[in-house]
UniProtKB/TrEMBL annotation:
Protein family (similarity comment): Belongs to the anaerobic coproporphyrinogen-III oxidase family. HemW subfamily.
Protein name, UniProt field: Heme chaperone HemW
Radical SAM core domain sequence ranges: 24-267
Protein's job: Probably acts as a heme chaperone, transferring heme to an unknown acceptor. Binds one molecule of heme per monomer, possibly covalently. Binds 1 [4Fe-4S] cluster. The cluster is coordinated with 3 cysteines and an exchangeable S-adenosyl-L-methionine.
Family annotation (Pfam families): Radical_SAM
Domain of life of the native organism: Bacteria
One annotated GO molecular function: 4 iron, 4 sulfur cluster binding
Localisation per UniProt entry: Cytoplasm
Primary location class: cytoplasm
InterPro entries named among the record's database cross-references: Aldolase_TIM, Coproporphyrinogen-III_oxidase, Elp3/MiaA/NifB-like_rSAM, HemW-like, rSAM, rSAM_sf
UniProt cross-references to NCBIfam families, sorted A to Z: hemN_rel
Keywords noted in UniProt: 4Fe-4S, Chaperone, Cytoplasm, Heme, Iron, Iron-sulfur, Metal-binding, S-adenosyl-L-methionine
C-alpha cells in the first residue's frame, strides 16, 4: 500500500455509495482487507503506509482494533444503504505494516467482527502477513483456532548482508522454525522474497531461492526491489552510498527464479507469484487482479466496489478522529467510467497466467498481436484460442506488451 494517495474527488463524510455499485454485485466476489499500520522499525526501502511507535503522534496502537471494528460497522451500513446484496467474505487479508505486532487475540477479534458483519463464505481464505521474528508456535495456533488459514512470511532473503541493506532485522535461521510452527498449526505458508537489492549477487539470490524452496512452502512471491522516492534507500542511492539496482541483473534474477521454482514444482500464476497448485494461490490478491469487490479497513486502506474506488486518511490519528466523530475515514474517491475499467482490466489481467481475453482489446490493439507473437512476447497457441498470455520473455517486458495491448 504505497504511502502517496491519488488525487480525486472528496469522499462524502458519511461514506455513502452511489446506487450503481449494486448492479451485478451478486456476480462479484467480496473480500475484506485489514491494514495494520504498525512496524517495529522502518525498512529503508519501504514506502508503505506504516508507522513505528515514535511516528504515531496522537494515536495509540492499543486503540486500533476497536477503531477497525468501528469501520467494519460503517462498511456494513453503507453497503446495506446502497442496496448491495449481502455477500459473505470469500477472502480476508491482514496486511501492513506488521499485523502480528497486534496480539493474536486482537486479530482473532477483528476476524470475528468481519464474520459478524458480513459472514465468512465456506472455505474462506484468511491470511495474515507476518515477520519471522513476530510470531511463535503459540501465536500461530491461536490464529488457526480463530479461523485463519494462511500466513505469509516476509523472508526477503537468506543472506545476512542483503537483509542488512534492506534494514530487515530477523535472523535467516528463524525461517525454518516459523515455517515448521505454521505447518504444525495447520496453516498454509507463503514466503515473500525480494531480489535486486544493491550488493546482491546472482549467487546470493540463488542462495535465497534454494533456502525458500527447501522449506517447501505452498506459495512463493518474488518481487523486484523498486526504489521509491522519499525512502532512506533512495537517499542512499542519490548520495552514492549504494548502487542503484540493475535492470539487467534483476531480469537475470527473475529468469533464475522462474527456472528454479518450476523445477521445484511451482507454477507461476501472476508475474511475481508461484504456487504448488491452484488451491495454494492467493485468492485475495487474485480478486484485486480480476477487479472484484473489497472493502479496505484501516489507515490509508483502499477499497473498490462496483467501479467506485476510495481510500482512507493515511495517518492513524486522522483515521481515528474521523471514526470518533461518526464519519467515514475515506478522504478521496473516484468513479471509474467504462473505458477506464477496461484499461485497468487489461493492465491487471495481463499479469495473470490466464491472460487477457482478446475480445477486450480494441481493433487497433488486435493488429499488434501478430508482432507480439513474432517477438515471442505472447503465447501463440493461447492467442489463437482467444487469450493474450505472456511468455517468459513477455513477463520480463510486460510494460511494453501492455502498451501495445492498450494502443488506440
Amino acid at each position: 500500500m504505497p504511502s502517496a494517495l491519488p488525487l480525486a474527488d472528496p469522499a462524502p463524510r458519511d461514506g455513502a455509495l452511489p446506487a450503481s455499485v449494486a448492479a451485478g454485485a451478486e456476480q462479484r466476489d467480496f473480500g475484506v482487507y485489514v491494514h495494520v499500520p504498525f512496524c517495529r522499525v522502518r525498512c529503508g526501502y519501504c514506502d508503505f503506509n506504516t508507522y513505528t511507535a515514535e511516528e504515531l503522534r496522537g494515536a495509540r496502537r492499543e486503540d486500533y482494533a476497536s477503531q477497525a471494528v468501528g469501520e467494519l460497522a460503517l462498511a456494513s451500513r453503507v453497503l446495506h444503504e446502497a442496496r448491495v446484496q449481502r455477500r459473505p467474505a470469500s477472502t480476508v487479508f491482514f496486511g501492513g505494516g506488521t499485523p502480528t505486532m497486534l496480539p493474536a487475540a486482537q486479530l482473532a477479534g477483528l476476524l470475528k467482527a468481519v464474520d459478524e458483519r458480513f459472514g465468512l463464505a465456506p472455505g474462506a481464505e484468511v491470511t495474515t502477513e507476518a515477520n519471522p521474528d513476530s510470531v511463535d508456535e503459540r501465536y500461530l495456533h491461536e490464529l488457526r483456532d480463530a479461523g485463519f488459514t494462511r500466513v505469509s512470511f516476509g523472508m526477503q532473503s537468506a543472506v545476512p548482508h542483503v537483509l542488512a541493506t534492506l534494514d530487515r532485522t530477523h535472523d535467516p535461521a528463524r525461517i525454518p522454525e516459523v515455517v515448521a510452527a505454521a505447518r504444525a498449526a495447520g496453516l498454509q505458508v507463503s514466503l515473500d522474497l525480494i531480489y535486486g537489492t544493491p550488493g546482491e549477487s546472482i549467487d546470493d539470490w540463488k542462495r535465497s531461492l534454494d533456502a525458500a524452496i527447501e522449506q517447501a512452502p505452498d506459495h512463493i512471491s518474488a518481487y523486484a526491489l523498486i526504489v521509491e522516492d522519499g525512502t532512506r534507500l533512495a537517499r542512499q542511492i542519490r548520495r552514492g552510498e549504494v548502487a542503484s539496482p540493475s535492470d539487467d541483473l534483476q531480469a537475470e534474477m527473475y529468469e533464475l527464479a522462474d527456472t528454479a521454482l518450476a523445477a521445484a514444482g511451482y507454477a507461476w500464476y501472476e508475474l511475481s507469484n508461484w504456487s504448488r497448485d491452484e488451491s495454494s494461490r492467493s485468492r485475495h490478491n487474485l480478486s484485486y487482479w480480476r477487479g472484484q469487490d473489497w472493502w479496505g479497513i484501516g489507515p490509508g486502506a483502499h477499497s473498490h466496489v462496483g467501479g467506485v474506488r476510495w481510500w482512507n486518511a493515511k495517518h492513524p490519528a486522522a483515521y481515528a478522529q474521523r471514526l470518533a466523530a461518526g464519519e467515514s475515514p475515506a478522504v478521496g474517491r473516484e468513479t471509474l467510467d467504462d473505458e477506464t475499467r477496461r484499461v485497468e482490466e487489461v493492465l491487471l489481467r495481463s499479469r495473470l497466467r490466464e491472460g487477457v481475453p482478446s475480445a477486450m482489446l480494441t481493433a487497433a490493439a488486435r493488429t499488434s498481436v501478430a508482432s507480439l507473437i513474432a517477438d515471442e512476447l505472447i503465447d501463440a497457441r493461447a492467442a489463437f484460442q482467444g487469450s493474450i498470455v505472456l511468455t517468459l520473455r513477455g513477463r520480463l517486458l510486460a510494460d511494453a506488451v501492455v502498451r501495445a495491448l492498450l494502443s488506440d
